[in-house]
């Protein structure tokens, strides 16, 4: 009887944990202080993450249709990643003067598994993207899988070619020469917007 009560309590606690993480406001997932990137200090982490995306087509039609995809980040290192944070983004690279980022013309959402609903990611400046509630640590060989979806509005001016992308970024805090610094890994796919 005691074992049954203990197991029931454990299952109830395990069921509540994802709800707490998913319900946490995005501002709690933001870094407390700005830290330098470890790569800027001379430390490389080229093999920390294995990343994959599934479902991002080579091109998308502008309009109201959503494109759903999955992004996966796996800790490929031998150590546990601490202060782990997740963000998602939708945008385009700007190479020349006069070009614009497509991010303000797009929408990006993630699937909240506990609330069984799509949640919109929008930054204060209007760009599509932002922090996603998730685990605070990532053990060796542990993975994070996120279902995301995006669309780009018909109001996007097609006066130049857009080298667009969307995906998931994992960030953790490390130390290099006694300095706290951040490391990022991306699971990103590229696409080109086109008129319907």
List descriptors.
196 residues; mainly beta; 11% helix; disordered N terminus
Explain this structure to me?
The protein is mainly beta. Helix content is 11%, strand content 43%. The strands form two sheets. It has a five-stranded antiparallel sheet, with no helix packed on it. A hairpin with a 4-residue loop joins strand 5 (106-112) and strand 6 (117-120). It starts with a helix and ends with a strand.
Summarize the model shown.
By secondary structure, this protein is mainly β. It has one helix and ten strands.
Give the overall shape, derived from the CA principal axes. Answer: globular
**Helix run count:** 1
Q: What is the β-strand count?
A: 10
| CA-CA gap between termini | 64 Å
* Order of SSEs: HEEEEEEEEEE
Name the poorly predicted regions: 1-33
Please state how the strands of the largest beta sheet are arranged side by side.
1-3-8-5-6
The major pleated sheet works out as:
5 strands, antiparallel
Give the DSSP E fraction (strand runs of 2 or more residues). Answer: 35-45%
Q: Portion of residues in helices?
A: 10-25%
Structure classification: mainly beta
Radius of gyration: 19 Å
**What is the residue-mean pLDDT, rounded to a whole number?**
84
Name the assembly state: single chain
């Amino acid at each position: 009887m005691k074992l049954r009560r203990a197991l029931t309590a454990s299952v109830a606690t395990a069921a509540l944990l994802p709800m707490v993480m998913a319900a946490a406001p995005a501002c709690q997932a933001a870094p407390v202080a700005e830290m330098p990137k470890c790569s800027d200090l001379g430390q490389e982490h080229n093999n920390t993450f294995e990343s994959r995306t599934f479902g991002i087509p080579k091109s998308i039609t502008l309009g109201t249709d959503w494109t759903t995809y999955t992004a996966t980040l796996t800790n490929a290192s031998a150590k546990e990643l601490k202060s782990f944070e997740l963000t998602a983004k939708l945008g385009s690279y700007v190479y020349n003067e006069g070009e614009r980022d497509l991010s303000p013309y797009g929408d990006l959402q993630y699937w909240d598994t506990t609330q069984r609903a799509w949640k919109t990611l929008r930054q204060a400046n209007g760009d599509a993207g932002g922090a996603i509630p998730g685990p605070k640590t990532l053990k060796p060989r542990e993975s994070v899988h996120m279902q995301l979806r995006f669309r780009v509005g018909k109001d996007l001016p097609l006066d130049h070619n857009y080298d667009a992308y969307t995906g998931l970024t994992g960030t953790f805090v490390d130390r290099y020469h006694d300095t706290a610094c951040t490391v990022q890994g991306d699971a990103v796919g590229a696409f080109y917007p086109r008129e319907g």
